[in-house]
Amino acid sequence: MIYALLSWFPGAYDSALGRFLGRIVEPFQRWFNFARIGMVGFAPVVALIVLFLIQDGIRMIARIFGIYL
């Protein structure tokens, strides 16, 4: 979420924090670059939704095996 919020501040991606987060976030987020409407990209939103779904899936599998996270 922090990486997505950096887009609101000019030059934030060029800061040390922006470059660090970019190395972590951009490889995963590139998978969702298809999510565009005009000039607005929804890749960060789609990526977050996918991460939440993966997290819920892992929790559900853990509960099946009796592991509570």
Short description:
This protein has 69 residues and is mainly α. It contains three helices and two strands.
Number of strands: 2
Distance N terminus to C terminus?
23 Å
Q: Kindly estimate the percentage of residues that lie in beta strands according to DSSP.
A: 5-15%
Count of DSSP-assigned helices? 3
Give the class from helix and strand content and strand pairing: mainly alpha
Radius of gyration: 15 Å
- How are helices and strands ordered from N to C? HHEEH
Protein described:
The chain has helices at residues 2-5, 16-29, 43-64; strands at 36-37, 40-41. It is mostly helical and 69 residues long. Strands 1-2 form a two-stranded antiparallel ribbon. Strand 1 (36-37) and strand 2 (40-41) form a beta hairpin. The protein is elongated and about 50 Å long. The model has no long low-confidence stretch (mean pLDDT 89).
Blueprint of the fold:
Blueprint: H1 2-5, H2 16-29, E1 36-37, E2 40-41, H3 43-64
Question: Can you tag this structure with a few keywords?
Answer:
69 residues; mainly alpha; two-stranded antiparallel sheet; 3 helices; 58% helix; elongated
